[in-house]
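RECORD TYPE: inverse folding
INPUT: structure tokens
STRUCTURE:
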């Protein structure tokens, strides 16, 4: 079966990394899978840079900014990730020429595929939702807003009080062009699946839950002392807390809650802890504990060493799908602490392989960190269970097979899907 994966980048960002891992898992399983991207970073002959003329590339560079809301029209726009979906690279034409048996969409914002172009793709289409954009009037995460249950409008992220705003226009376009598509949605988390089922736009499509996968030969536990020495984190007297700070100004990632959680540790007289930060190049504000910066690590094996060097990984996100970082940490035998939101419960089982804090309660987040690291015997049990749960549920080979089964079922039942009027 020929499968064409469509994603804007090869491995830049969480959605791209998850998509690329699935593609690699399918290739390893013998599936005829290809990936089409705008920017290729490897020499893999089956990852294809989308053919574009110089004129097309120039037009894209000059117009891609229009995929974001205009500040002149929406001066109170919060600057959150947003894709209007009216620009498109020539992806649909390429897909039509390739004649795949399955078109598999991943992250298609930033002018990679327009709303209209998605409707022009050859079916059947399987779409892995790496965030909420397929359901909404433009935002990639709603921040708790439920207006996508209807037709959006008066969008809080736009700072709009008008029903007929950009979010309503985008939602109307999606409903117009996607009506009757031969489309199957895949949600990596049960939370996102329930969100899709509750949405006006996607509620009538077939929706399956298949988690992202991970290569367990790459992401595996290493000796902690060895890992710390390699990464110059050799102070074995400290309990190391890891945080991935790609954008500390992104409120959704909950950095302010991490600050409060670490402050609460000082009240527990935890002077033996330090914070390790990867991904953020700018110094953080005072955190109340020593901070080690390791920079941005792109190599999977170095990342596996980093996880193995620490005692706990903290993901204080306020809304998230199925973050790669939590899965990567668990695969390396690192217990994780997060709020009980989004897709976190799909990975973290409370006090079995980690700790799920009460939603948006930084004091409970701090208690969770302390609970994980305060008892060596408990930590060893959490670590072993985290690794085992990843083996049982997220092995990329199993995930690739689940998608292959889904493709076969979709092909067998190929046809138009009746939509609600």
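DESIGNED SEQUENCE:
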């Amino acid at each position: 079966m020929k499968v064409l994966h469509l994603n804007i980048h090869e491995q830049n960002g969480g959605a791209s990394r998850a998509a690329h891992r699935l593609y690699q898992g399918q290739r390893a399983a013998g599936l005829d899978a290809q990936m089409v991207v705008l920017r290729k970073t490897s020499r893999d002959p089956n990852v294809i840079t989308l053919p574009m003329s110089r004129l097309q590339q120039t037009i894209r560079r000059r117009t891609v900014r229009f995929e974001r809301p205009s500040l002149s029209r929406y001066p109170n726009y919060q600057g959150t990730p947003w894709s209007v979906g009216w620009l498109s690279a020539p992806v649909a034409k390429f897909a039509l020429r390739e004649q795949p048996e399955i078109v598999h969409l991943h992250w298609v914002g930033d002018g990679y595929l327009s709303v209209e172009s998605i409707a022009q793709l050859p079916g059947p289409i399987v779409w892995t939702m790496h965030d909420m954009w397929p359901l909404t009037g433009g935002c990639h995460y709603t921040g708790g807003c439920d207006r996508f249950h209807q037709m959006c409008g008066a969008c809080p992220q736009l700072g709009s009080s008008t029903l007929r705003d950009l979010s309503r226009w985008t939602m109307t376009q999606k409903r117009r062009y996607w009506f009757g598509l031969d489309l199957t949605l895949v949600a990596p988390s049960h939370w996102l699946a329930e969100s899709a089922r509750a949405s006006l736009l996607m509620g009538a499509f077939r929706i399956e839950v298949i988690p992202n996968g991970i290569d367990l030969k790459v992401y595996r536990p290493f000796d902690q002392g060895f890992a710390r020495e390699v990464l110059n984190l050799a102070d074995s007297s400290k309990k190391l807390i890891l945080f991935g700070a790609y954008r500390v100004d992104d409120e959704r990632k909950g950095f302010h809650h991490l600050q409060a959680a670490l402050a609460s540790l000082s009240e527990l007289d935890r002077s033996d802890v330090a914070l390790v930060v990867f991904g953020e190049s700018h110094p953080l504000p005072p955190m109340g504990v020593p901070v080690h910066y390791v920079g941005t690590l792109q190599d999977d094996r170095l990342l596996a060493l980093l996880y193995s060097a620490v005692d706990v990984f903290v993901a204080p996100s306020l809304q998230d799908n199925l973050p790669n970082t939590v899965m990567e940490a668990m695969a390396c035998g690192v217990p994780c602490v997060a709020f009980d939101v989004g897709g976190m419960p799909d990975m973290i089982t409370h006090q079995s392989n980690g700790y799920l804090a009460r939603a948006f309660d930084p004091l409970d987040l701090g208690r969770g960190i302390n609970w994980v690291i305060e008892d060596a015997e408990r930590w060893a049990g959490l670590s072993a269970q985290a690794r085992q749960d990843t083996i049982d549920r997220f092995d990329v080979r199993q995930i690739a097979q689940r998608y292959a089964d889904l493709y076969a079922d979709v092909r067998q039942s190929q046809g138009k899907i009746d939509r609600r009027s």
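NOTES: Confidence is low (pLDDT under 50) at residues 416-421.
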